[in-house]
Amino acid sequence: MQINEIINSFHPIVIQIANPYGIGTGFYLRNYDLIITNEHVVRGTNEVIISGKNFQKVLSPVLFSDSKYDLAFIKPPDEIVFPEKNLGKAETIKDGDIVIAIGHPYGLNYTATEGIVSRAKRLYNNLDYIQIDAAINPGNSGGPLVNMEGEIIGVNTFIIAGGNNLGFALPVNYLIESLEDYKPFKGKSALRCSSCSNIILEEDLQDKYCPECGAELEGFEQKKEGYVPTGAAATIEKILEKLGKDVKLSRSGPNRWVVDAGSIKVYIVYNDNGFITGDAFICRLPKQKISELYEFLLRENSKFEFTNFSIFNQTVILSTIIYDQYLNLEIGLEAFQSLLEKADYYDDYIINTFGASPGIIEEQ
Fold this sequence. Notes:
Elements: H1 3-10, E1 14-19, E2 22-29, E3 34-37, H2 39-42, E4 47-52, E5 55-66, E6 71-74, E7 98-103, E8 111-124, E9 127-132, E10 144-147, E11 152-159, E12 167-171, H3 172-182, E13 190-192, E14 199-201, H4 220-225, H5 231-242, H6 247-250, E15 251-253, E16 256-261, E17 264-270, E18 275-284, H7 290-303, E19 308-312, E20 315-323, H8 329-354, E21 357-358
Parallel strand pairs: 5-13
Antiparallel strand pairs: 1-2, 1-4, 2-3, 3-6, 4-5, 5-6, 7-8, 7-10, 8-9, 9-12, 10-11, 11-12, 13-14, 15-16, 16-17, 17-18, 18-20, 18-21, 19-20
């Protein structure tokens, strides 16, 4: 198969994963009817947001966590038909084989990088990993490593910080072992005990201890409770709820939310410097009437209290900004309601009045 054919054939099964702690990648296996990813991608939460080429983002439960192999299985969306992809064989992987890593590094959707197997077996933490030089980055975790026959031979798992394309994928034999171990419990919430390696149903847990060996299962209580926002993040989510938004579906990473305002997406970020920003990317500048549009935006800015127009890289952006020390429910509600209403209105108005081009919609 040609490389571009392999990459395109995998797009329908490669899944975007987001939760309040971070983002990652997964992939669907029809033979098991599960979405596969890394355990560290879903750690600390019992449900994640998933989205793909043939379905919009939905909340889906994490069915199985395996900290031994850093694997997790997620329930796929109902009534979606995914193409079938085959698993390869670990024993056929050789040094120098050409491989492709597919995922969503830094949220850049459906990124594929080509490389070679630098070492077919590299022992690390008592497990054999596939060392590759294909570039993988944060957000790639959980994505498939594919050979030139279009078979999945591993799960992209980690990189060496500061290394030059030193990536590592969990070989497919460990994935198959974990899938087969979970098969008798399919559809139920379970985890592998990191001490005795038994598969334990969450309903059988004794508090936070394994019923087989008595070991404490780290992170179980947090996973069971799910994500609970605090501080300014909790206030932001209360504001979004009052605005009628699905808060869980809006979460797109640590202190990040994406909400719809008509056909526009509004990106809300609670930054490390204490500022909460909301940005709506309205439209692209027109080829004519640019000076008229500039004058219009400046006049409108003089009327606004909580929002402000700006232009960056030929894109008209409507924004609001609040310092966390001044954020409360009343101020935040007024600011973000104003932003959402204006974003929806001005998107159509500027396009129709000044001939601007619609903004670029992020590919799903």
